[in-house]
Amino acid sequence: MQKVEVAITTEFITVDKLLKFAGVVDSGGQAFQLVLDGLVKINNAPIHEKRKKVFLGDKVNIDDQIELTVVAETDENI
Fold it and tell me: What is the tens place of the pLDDT at every residue in 17-59?
Protein backbone atom coordinates (compact mmCIF):
# COMPACT_ATOMS: atom_id res chain seq x y z
CA MET A 1 0.00 0.00 0.00
CA GLN A 2 1.29 3.44 -0.92
CA LYS A 3 1.42 5.80 2.08
CA VAL A 4 1.48 9.56 1.57
CA GLU A 5 1.44 12.51 3.97
CA VAL A 6 -0.65 15.44 2.78
CA ALA A 7 0.11 18.78 4.43
CA ILE A 8 -2.70 21.30 4.82
CA THR A 9 -2.79 24.79 6.31
CA THR A 10 -6.33 24.59 7.67
CA GLU A 11 -8.02 22.67 10.49
CA PHE A 12 -9.77 20.33 8.04
CA ILE A 13 -10.28 19.60 4.35
CA THR A 14 -13.22 17.89 2.67
CA VAL A 15 -12.51 14.42 1.34
CA ASP A 16 -13.23 15.38 -2.27
CA LYS A 17 -10.76 18.27 -2.10
CA LEU A 18 -8.18 16.09 -0.35
CA LEU A 19 -8.33 13.46 -3.08
CA LYS A 20 -7.87 16.14 -5.75
CA PHE A 21 -5.13 17.97 -3.81
CA ALA A 22 -3.20 14.72 -3.29
CA GLY A 23 -3.46 13.87 -6.99
CA VAL A 24 -5.48 10.70 -6.43
CA VAL A 25 -8.23 11.93 -8.79
CA ASP A 26 -8.46 14.65 -11.42
CA SER A 27 -11.94 15.93 -10.60
CA GLY A 28 -14.48 16.21 -7.84
CA GLY A 29 -16.77 13.91 -9.81
CA GLN A 30 -14.16 11.15 -9.69
CA ALA A 31 -13.76 11.69 -5.95
CA PHE A 32 -17.52 11.50 -5.43
CA GLN A 33 -17.68 8.26 -7.42
CA LEU A 34 -15.00 6.64 -5.24
CA VAL A 35 -17.04 7.56 -2.15
CA LEU A 36 -20.30 6.31 -3.69
CA ASP A 37 -18.60 3.04 -4.65
CA GLY A 38 -17.58 2.53 -1.00
CA LEU A 39 -13.86 2.68 -1.75
CA VAL A 40 -12.96 5.46 0.69
CA LYS A 41 -12.46 5.02 4.43
CA ILE A 42 -11.48 7.54 7.09
CA ASN A 43 -9.69 5.99 10.06
CA ASN A 44 -10.83 2.55 8.82
CA ALA A 45 -14.52 3.55 8.77
CA PRO A 46 -16.30 3.56 5.38
CA ILE A 47 -17.75 6.93 4.48
CA HIS A 48 -20.84 7.80 2.47
CA GLU A 49 -20.74 11.60 2.61
CA LYS A 50 -19.21 13.15 -0.50
CA ARG A 51 -18.00 16.20 1.40
CA LYS A 52 -16.98 14.55 4.67
CA LYS A 53 -14.52 16.64 6.68
CA VAL A 54 -11.05 15.19 7.17
CA PHE A 55 -9.10 16.56 10.13
CA LEU A 56 -5.40 16.72 11.00
CA GLY A 57 -4.14 13.27 11.95
CA ASP A 58 -6.88 11.42 10.04
CA LYS A 59 -5.92 8.57 7.73
CA VAL A 60 -7.84 8.23 4.47
CA ASN A 61 -7.69 4.87 2.73
CA ILE A 62 -8.59 4.57 -0.94
CA ASP A 63 -9.45 1.04 -2.12
CA ASP A 64 -6.76 -0.44 0.16
CA GLN A 65 -4.21 0.91 -2.36
CA ILE A 66 -3.37 4.39 -1.04
CA GLU A 67 -3.31 5.74 2.51
CA LEU A 68 -3.27 9.52 2.92
CA THR A 69 -2.36 10.95 6.32
CA VAL A 70 -3.38 14.57 6.85
CA VAL A 71 -0.71 16.62 8.63
CA ALA A 72 -0.22 20.29 9.41
CA GLU A 73 1.95 22.14 6.94
CA THR A 74 5.30 23.15 8.42
CA ASP A 75 8.48 24.65 6.98
CA GLU A 76 9.84 21.08 6.80
CA ASN A 77 7.10 19.65 4.55
CA ILE A 78 6.56 22.56 2.14
Answer: 999 999 999 999 999 999 999 999 999 999 999 899 999 999 9
Query: How far, in Å, are 6, 18, 29, 60, 74 from residue 71 at the CA level?
Result: 6, 12, 25, 12, 9
Fold exhibited by the domain 2-77: 3.10.290
Model pTM score: 0.90
Going from N- to C-terminal start, the domains of the chain cover: 2-77
Sign of the Cα torsion 27, 49, 45, 58 reads positive
**Interatomic CA distance for residues 67 and 19, integer angstroms:** 11
- From residue 25, give the alpha-carbon distance in Å to each of 30, 32, 75: 6, 10, 26
